[in-house]
Amino acid sequence: MTILALEHCDLLIVGAGPAGMAAAVAAAPSGASIVVIDDNPAPGGQIWRDGPGAALPPAARKWREALERHANIRVCSGTRVIAAPAHGELLLEDAVRGWRMQWKKLILCTGARELLLPFPGWTLPGVTGAGGLQALIKAGLPVEGERIVVAGSGPLLLAAAATARAAGAKVVRIAEQASLAAAAGFAVKLLRWPGKAVQALTLGDTRYRTSSRIVAVQGRGQVESVLLRQGGREVQIDCDRVACGFGLTPNTQLGQMLGCALAPADTGAPPLAVDALQRTSLPGVYAAGECTGFGGSERALAQGTIAGYAAVGNERAARQHEHERARWNAFAAQLHRSFALAPDIRQMPQPDTLVCRCEDVPFSALAGCSGWTDAKLHRRCGMGACQGRVCGDAAQFLFGWTPPSPRPPLSPARIATLAGLAVHGNDVDRQ
Amino acid sequence: MSGQTSLHIDGRLVRVKAGTSVAAALRVADSMGVARTSISGQPRAPFCGMGVCQECRVRVDGRRMLACQTVCAEGMQVETTA
Ligand SMILES: Cc1cc2nc3c(=O)[nH]c(=O)nc-3n(C[C@H](O)[C@H](O)[C@H](O)COP(=O)(O)OP(=O)(O)OC[C@H]3O[C@@H](n4cnc5c(N)ncnc54)[C@H](O)[C@@H]3O)c2cc1C
Ligand code: FES
């Protein structure tokens, strides 16, 4: 029978993006034993990915070096959370083994994922998320000479286009659904956050079009062209790749599985609820970064710092970063207002457009369902490998359905890891 | 990062820059980097690039892995349509 190792730490941080890195570094001087786990091959999160196609900015290096400098921080990359087998304990798995980790304090820094919405042709090879394309390029995806259309909403489209261009791709169009007034208004407001304004200027692009929507991606076996609606007219653009993203959705699954309360959301999926010290509704559990709502790396760093200090009892130091957090919260609010999705984005899918990509469930099969449970039980929507992370977000946006509540295993796991759960108890301690 | 890594994808030798993800290597091996076929038989390639969609799952040395979160290692055997 499999017996899983049991390890202990004072502070466990899930996610090694800006929030998780800042939390670990803030907590380290306390001398607590800190473990940071992340499912990616290297720390950095979504924004600071390393790889043969990435140029890691100085800020990212600085945070990485800070993690390495502290002997009491252990970073476990390529490690994911599978379940919460007992109070104060998580079941973890990497490429080699599964093990149990007991913690005294926990900080959730699980970040956000892209909101990916269905349109005709979105399952064709060559269609990726916008941030997804950026991530793939940083990880070495060759795109030199490819014609790429970036479509959807928000500043991430510009960031993805800049990464693609730097890798030698021809970005032939950036189609933003928001109006010119909204996008321009956002650019003007950026003057309040000078660092961001400079970023926006360097991202500015002559191929940028506002009030522009995807109608369909076409191709036999792979992307060949995209049909866009720009204002009142339709244009077809030949391309090799389409990168789409409609904003970000907070990764709250782990928090929800543990029982952390969600905050009310004006639009989109609700984030984890936190108080001024980044505490969730669960004692000893904190949350920081984009799982508490999306708003950029600076906000994630400020929140992570506060959470790190608070988790080791240094509330005074935590409170010194409240001003910084407020400043970036205001930036986040501006971002949300400017790039709110237009209601007609809901009309993108056609009856035969697959909404659930894992179980191949078309829009027409869902339109008559009364809600998630109905869609799941009768149409198998959300029953596949992604566990509703893609189609659940889409269905929430399209139909207003609350996505399925997360259940263990949080991500597909090896049988050996799960079998280890069966032999539960303190006797495993000695192994 | 410098240097190259050689691996096999469906038996075919592929050389990539060291540190490349298996998802990126799929594209080097095949025109659109198809990882698997959907339950109704459609080709699917890495989509989210960040471990969420599970469209990139492949077999790496016999183990089911997410291609977008796995770095290529020398001599790796990758099988698609896992
Ligand atoms: C695809 C994508 C690309 C982006 N690119 C940019 C950009 O170029 N510029 C920019 O300003 N902003 C970008 N953003 C926004 C960016 O997310 C934030 O600015 C910043 O990275 C947020 O930091 P964070 O620490 O909150 O979360 P993240 O950086 O998202 O870090 C969270 C980490 O936790 C890991 N994780 C989550 N759940 C688990 C689990 N259960 N087990 C183990 N690990 C887990 C994730 O894989 C990730 O590595 C991007 C966002 C996305 C989704
Ligand atoms: S591309 Fe989505 S999980 Fe790998």
From TrEMBL, chain A:
UniProt keyword annotation of Membrane present: no
Keywords: Oxidoreductase
GO molecular function: oxidoreductase activity
Pfam families tied to this protein: Pyr_redox_2
Superkingdom assignment: Bacteria
Keyword Metal-binding recorded: no
Domain FAD/NAD(P)-binding per the UniProt entry, residue ranges: 10-298
Classification via PANTHER family: ANAEROBIC GLYCEROL-3-PHOSPHATE DEHYDROGENASE SUBUNIT B
Designated name of the protein: FAD-dependent oxidoreductase
Automatic annotation (TrEMBL), chain B:
InterPro entries documented for this protein: 2Fe-2S-bd_N, 2Fe-2S_ferredoxin-like_sf, 2Fe-2S_ferredoxin-type
PROSITE patterns reported for this sequence: 2FE2S_FER_2
Pfam families according to UniProt: Fer2_4 (PF13510)
Keyword Nuclease tagged: no
Annotated ranges, domain 2Fe-2S ferredoxin-type: 3-82
Keywords: Oxidoreductase
Signal peptide: none
The UniProt record lists the keyword Oxidoreductase: yes
Gene Ontology MF annotations: iron-sulfur cluster binding; oxidoreductase activity
Superkingdom of source: Bacteria
Protein name, as recorded: (2Fe-2S)-binding protein
Organism of provenance: Variovorax paradoxus
